[in-house]
Design brief:
Blueprint (H helix, E strand, L loop, with lengths): L8 H22 L5 H6 L6 H12 L2 H13 L3 H8 L4 H14 L6 H7 L2 H34 L3 H49 L2 H10 L18 H14 L4 H7 L5 H35 L13 H9 L4 H37 L5 H25 L6 H24 L6 H20 L2 E3 L2 E3 L15 H18 L16 H8 L1
Antiparallel strand pairs: 1-2
Helix pairs in contact: 1-9, 1-15, 3-9, 3-12, 3-13, 3-15, 4-13, 4-15, 4-17, 5-11, 6-13, 7-8, 8-9, 8-14, 8-15, 8-16, 8-17, 8-18, 9-13, 9-15, 9-16, 10-13, 11-17, 11-19, 15-16, 17-18, 17-19, 18-19
Amino acid sequence: MLGQMELNWLDYTTIGIYAMVVVSLGLWFARQQHSSRSYFVADRSFTWMPMAISQLASLLSAVSYLGTPGETYNYDLKYIVMSFAALTAIPIAIYLFIDFFYRLNVISIYEYLERRFNYATRVLGSIIFIIMRVAWMATIVSATSIFVHKLTGMAAWQCIVLTATVSTIYTLLGGMKAIVWTDVIQFILFTGGLVGALVVIGLHDSPKEMVDVLVQDDKLKFLDFRLDPTLRINTFAAIMAGIVGGLANVTDQVSMQRYLSSKSLRQAHKALWVKPLLGIPLILMLFGLGLALYAHYNLHPGMAKGITKGDEAFPHFILTEMPHGLAGLVIAAVFAAAMSSIDSGIHTLSTVTIEDYYKRLIEPDMTDRKCLFLARCLTVFWAILVTFAALLFSRIGSIVEMMNKLASPFFGCAVGIFILGTATRRTRAWGAFGGGLIGLGLMSWVMLCIGRVDGRWYMFTRAENVVRISWIWYAVVSFLGTVIPGYVISLFLPKSGAGPGKSKGLNIWEQAAKTS
């Protein structure tokens, strides 16, 4: 059991300065919030660099900060294959998605699904996003609260409320501009905390001794080509899941709303290409920190007392070995990582609620002033909902594994629906809709029913000793379970009606013919 950290004035000053800076940014940009478009997409005013940093910061949540080192500490480097495989999706994402969404001048990307298919498919896509994002944010806040509670003794509920409140204030006031620029600060803080932790370990232990430990315990292994689907991570599944995850970073309102805030399509392309150049060093540092912590505590086993699982290694290190000031910086970085995910989430949830439901069904001609007011009200509503959801989470398992189990099925289905729209000409509206439902159903069946008992596979089993298919396959199964049935169903539907007949230029084939 970890003890509690005694923060001094330097630590509290570091945390306090961070909180004041982000709230001040919200107040500063509040003066520029004169329309709903400025609130949602900052009047398309951003250049590529802040866009790239903001996008990366929103993805590198507290789960990355705490879970990735814990993953490497517990296991090895197999998970890094999935992280790097996501980078290969960039040219696909530009070709299939960004150009379409930007040129359509939409605010909610799910509007594309209605133009290409029908409103039912738009609703399905947005519901998948809403459910996934609320659960995702609640998990991030819960993980952060547990981390801070172990270090400082602050009650988990206090941490949850504090994180959500500060995030909501600057998002509510400053909109997308406040989100992007606070994300830039959070990225710097995030990176500084990682570098500081690695430097402290590097000053304590020699690189040769640490490498010897890692080689001896086979911690540098990152390839595993065995085909057993129950293996926790294998290379084939990691590559495919990484590509689907990389595409999901674009077919997701949180990511796309940033690109839609760019000055031009060219700026959006640059942001997407620069993001991995910034992300690769961070990925290496996150995995490197896990390896360094493992080697450090194996070289000094007496100092590892209290660590019961990998997710506790980094908090334990901060608690026992970080100098004051730097410890405060790391704690602020954890808050920053959580806030960079929360601000994006509640902002885009309010966007989707207005664009896909309120304006579409209730008041299409609402005034811009009312739209801005409603957007701010919904930002508060979603923040409160996420806060209550986080308070209900009482137990957190392996952070990385939990997040993949939570997000992968939804990401796979969302990517599949958008692929059916942009990459195929024959897919019909109810084919895409049915494919999405089948993908979700198939994924639920794989997660909850199919399993191996005593070497034999069963389609439905609840046996106590059942071995389930690994979570690494979830994104792949949900993606293929959406695309294949969606396209096959469309082959049996008439060519006339909803779909290509009313949506010329909304897939790559017709777009190419249109521009040739």
